[in-house]
Amino acid sequence: MVLGLGALAQQPQPQPQQRPPLVYVIFNGMIDPRGAQSLMSVFANIHNAGAQTVHLGINSLGGYTDQAFYLFNALRALPLRLITHNISTIQSAANILFLSGEHRYASRNATFMLHHTSHGGAVPVTYDQFSIKDRMRALTTDDENTARLVADETELPLKTVKSWFRGSVIRNAEFAAENGLIDEIAPFEVPEGVPIVQVIV
Fold first, then answer.
1. Phi/psi of residue 71, each to 5°?
2. How far are the Cα atoms of 3, 104, 115, 144 from residue 120, in angstroms, in the given order?
3. pTM of the predicted model, to two decimals?
4. Do 160 and 103 form a contact (C-beta atoms < 8 A)?
């Protein structure tokens, strides 16, 4: 049967998918290829569903610097408002992920830790003088890139930020607030009725 234009106009039209304006995500894991892939898969689904604002609660002991920068750059590229929360501890490379937030918060009992980059492996590795020099350059580059990012996001002198890398010093939320790592100390609270996603790693 052929319908005229008037009849077509009267046909039920598909309703656009409701956009979830606000979503909460929790990440509890290492910043490694598996963790990074799982987190970005969640964010891809949230973005494709039309989310406008995402609160990301993080608890992480760190991981790989390259994966952390991958997450930072990929999350900053998404056209959504990202707010990050330290809900337990942010250590090592996890600081890079945490700094991807447009606004950043920490629970009262949360902690932060930065340190110099280290490389390791599960099996013995043989080095010569050239490979040692290459490894040193890689370590130095990772440290420099991380320190510059922290300095840019906190608006502190690079020299000040680099001093935080000496020794694996655990710092509290008050330190983070005083030095621009967070906007303020605030609890991680999910409003009633707002979707929440746990990243599976």
1. -65, -45
2. 70, 31, 15, 19
3. 0.84
4. no
Beta carbons within 8 Å of 118's beta carbon, 6+ residues apart? 139
Q: Per residue in 188-200, pLDDT tens?
A: 999 999 999 999 9
Task: Name the residue type at position 134.
Answer: D
Local structure of residue 11 (DSSP, 8 states): S
E-strand ranges in 61-185 read 81-91, 103-106, 111-113, 170-172, 184-185
User: What are the domain boundaries of the chain?
Assistant: 19-198
Q: How many CB atoms lie within 10 A of CB 131?
A: 11
Nearest CA among 127, 139, 121, 62 for reference residue 95: 62
Decide which of 46 and 17 is more confident: 46
Q: Residues 40-99: pLDDT tens digits?
A: 999 999 999 999 999 999 999 999 999 999 999 999 999 999 999 999 999 999 999 999
| Of 1, 52, 60, 53, residue with least CA distance to 36 | 60
Helix axis angle, 65-77 to 129-154, nearest 10°:
40
Residues 71 and 42 sit within 8 Å (Cβ to Cβ): no
Is the CATH code 3.90.226.10 the one for domain 19-198? yes
Instruction: Quick: pLDDT tens for 130-176.
Output: 677 777 777 778 889 999 999 999 999 999 999 999 988 999 999 99
